[in-house]
């Protein structure tokens, strides 16, 4: 049966004016050319609700009962990796049949949205305790201490791009056109391993690591790059070297070499890249290098050196000026992962 046309608001008001003037259903129906049942329904609505305006409609009854909703929320709270298809099967077991998109919408209304999980280092209880201890110990260190710390790290730069999602604007049936694809090469097409350092006053030296790095290679990198970087960056005599707990950094021979060369190191909690601001500079470096589209490893090495030297000192200064916020975040997370 076709849906009847809605009576205009002005017509409904006119019906009430005639009714209040003493006219009956039949007379109003004849005067306005409407069905008597329509006139009666409008007048009954006015008597009951005191208005002829459209009232909120209930709509289609929900298929997800309050009990089923509680079940959904409990399951995703217990295991956030549960898929909507698995939730759909779970509800089907209690005779609630709904589409998986309905489940996603209902969870969204309760503030639970599907998101890509953040990747963070796995932290043991020992790691968490060490991170919290480090943050509390250095929370009140003066800014001058951080400004005279030489931050170091190694990273690998791939020739053909970072592992991130890309999107293209294209028409249907053009997915495999050259401009709409991302070329891939076996084993990444090559990469370079680099060691770098920086301080609040700017970026230090960048060294390309050839072959496999062991303790001897690492010590040679420190020998050729640390002291010159300290001089270039004009660090005070009280400067401190930061390095992570990679076995090559903490080996007996490296520890003896550092002691012999009178390089004071900052004690460091394992699994804590979020506490090393050089990670932000690595991100900047890789973004700038890949924007230049290197075609071979030689280009990649040169672009790394070029772009590292271009990092503005103001960027380094801002990173160190806000370092205390990282420590506060670790304390707030009780040693757990942070947003850095």
UniProtKB/TrEMBL annotation:
A UniProt-annotated Pfam family: DDE_3
Domain Sleeping Beauty transposase HTH: 1-53
GO process annotations (BP): DNA integration; DNA transposition
Domain Transposase Tc1-like: 69-140
GO terms for MF: DNA binding
Signal peptide: none
Domain annotation Tc1-like transposase DDE: ranges: 150-300
PANTHER family: SI:DKEY-77F5.3, TRANSPOSABLE ELEMENT-RELATED
Full protein name: Transposase
């Amino acid at each position: 049966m076709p849906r009847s046309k809605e009576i205009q608001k002005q017509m409904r008001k006119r019906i009430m004016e005639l009714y209040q003037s003493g006219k009956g259903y039949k007379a109003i129906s004849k005067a306005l050319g409407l069905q008597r049942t329509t006139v009666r329904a409008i007048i009954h609505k006015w008597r009951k609700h005191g208005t002829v305006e459209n009232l909120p409609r209930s709509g289609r009854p929900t298929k997800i009962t309050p009990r089923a909703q509680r079940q959904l929320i409990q399951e995703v709270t217990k295991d956030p990796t549960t898929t909507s298809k698995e939730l759909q099967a779970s509800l089907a077991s209690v005779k609630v049949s709904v589409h998986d998109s309905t489940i996603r919408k209902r969870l969204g209304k309760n503030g639970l949205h599907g998101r890509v999980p953040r990747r963070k280092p796995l932290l043991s209880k020992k790691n968490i305790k060490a991170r919290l201890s480090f943050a509390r110990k250095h929370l009140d260190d003066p800014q001058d201490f951080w400004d005279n710390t030489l931050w170091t790290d190694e990273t690998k730069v791939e020739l053909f791009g970072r592992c991130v999602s890309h999107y293209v604007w294209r028409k249907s049936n053009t997915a495999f056109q050259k401009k709409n694809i991302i070329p891939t090469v076996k084993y990444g097409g090559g990469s370079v391993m680099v060691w770098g350092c920086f301080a609040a006053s700017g970026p230090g030296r960048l060294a390309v690591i050839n072959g496999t790095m062991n303790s001897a290679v690492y010590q040679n990198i420190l020998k050729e790059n640390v002291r010159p970087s300290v001089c270039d960056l004009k660090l005070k005599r009280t400067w401190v070297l930061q390095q992570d707990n990679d076995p090559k950094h903490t080996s007996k021979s490296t520890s003896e070499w550092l002691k012999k060369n009178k390089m004071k190191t900052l004690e460091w909690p394992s699994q804590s890249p979020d506490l090393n601001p050089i990670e932000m500079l690595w991100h900047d470096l890789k973004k700038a290098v890949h924007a230049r589209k290197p075609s071979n490893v030689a280009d990649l090495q040169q672009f790394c050196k070029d772009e590292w030297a271009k990092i503005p000192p103001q960027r380094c200064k801002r990173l160190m000026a806000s370092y205390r916020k990282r420590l506060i975040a670790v304390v707030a997370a009780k040693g757990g992962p942070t947003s850095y």
